[in-house]
Amino acid sequence: MSVFFFINQDSLAHRLDPRVKITGLILFCILAVAGESLSQLGLMLAVLLSLFLLSGSGRNLKKMAGFFMLIAAMTFVMWLLFYRSEETLWAWGNLVIYSGAASHAASMSLRFLNMLLSGLLFLSITSIEDFYGGMIIMKAPYPFAFAVSLSFRLVMVFMSNAFTIVEAQKVRGNDITKGGVIKRIKAYAPLIAPLILTGIKKAETLILALESKGFSPQNKMDFTGKYHLRTLDKWCLCIMLLAGIAAVLVKILR
């Protein structure tokens, strides 16, 4: 099972400048927060799903669909139970559902789902190198950009090690994918120690590698000439700017 979300394809989304992709990620998150009505959030969800299909990232969406739907369902239930208003819609013992709770819970669930999908789409069309280079060109502090890119790499390394350990345990007869929830939780216990030890070993190797390369926060990489804003990038930036302005105006005028 692949744990890397980036899909190397030659789509229009993949060819965009990293600065455009980072701006798009920020804009989608802002639109998800600013959106209030179910129609606005539903339209955003439709746009994100269309972008997944157009960029050829559908298999990532299929791989994470179950997890995302579970998160969205849990978010809906939590807001449905904890939302409070003056009018009671339904009550049964200590369980009370207030008027407007369902629509509010649905909007919060869609808002969170849109942000998750925005992040997954960004990771599907942007390599770690382009993400790092885009942050540097956008004048992000070098230590911050390096730490963010390194965290993504380490997460992938840890996930890859975890899957390797799981496969090794299956060979030894400890199949953690079988049985009930309690049995699976108990089966994960023997995996914690080797995963932690592997992480410590990776961290020590990383320290030695950085020292041998003469790494310092004062050293900055030069990406001059590597990335250029083409006509397509400029059009995308203009569309994003107009979408952001429209969202702000809708928020103010409501």
Structure annotation, total helices: 9
What is the global morphology? globular
Which range does the strand content fall in?
under 5%
Order of helices and strands: HHHHEEHHHHH
Low-confidence stretches: none
Total strands: the figure is 2
Rg is: 22 Å
Helix content: over 70%
Q: How far apart, in Å, are the first and last alpha carbons? A: 47 Å
Mean pLDDT: 82
- What class, by secondary structure content? mainly alpha
Q: Sheet bearing the most strands, described? A: 2 strands, antiparallel
Tally of separate domains: 2
Lateral strand order in the biggest sheet: 1-2
Question: How does this model look, in words?
Answer:
The protein has 2 domains: 16-126 and 228-254, no CATH class; 141-223, no CATH class. The chain is built from 9 helices and 2 strands; from the N terminus they run ααααββααααα. It has helices at residues 12-15, 18-34, 38-54, 58-82, 101-125, 128-137, 142-171, 181-212, 231-253, and strands at residues 88-92, 95-98. A two-stranded antiparallel ribbon has the order 1-2. α2 (18-34) packs parallel to α9 (231-253) and α6 (128-137) runs antiparallel to α7. The longest helix is centred in the last third of the chain and has 32 residues, at 181-212.
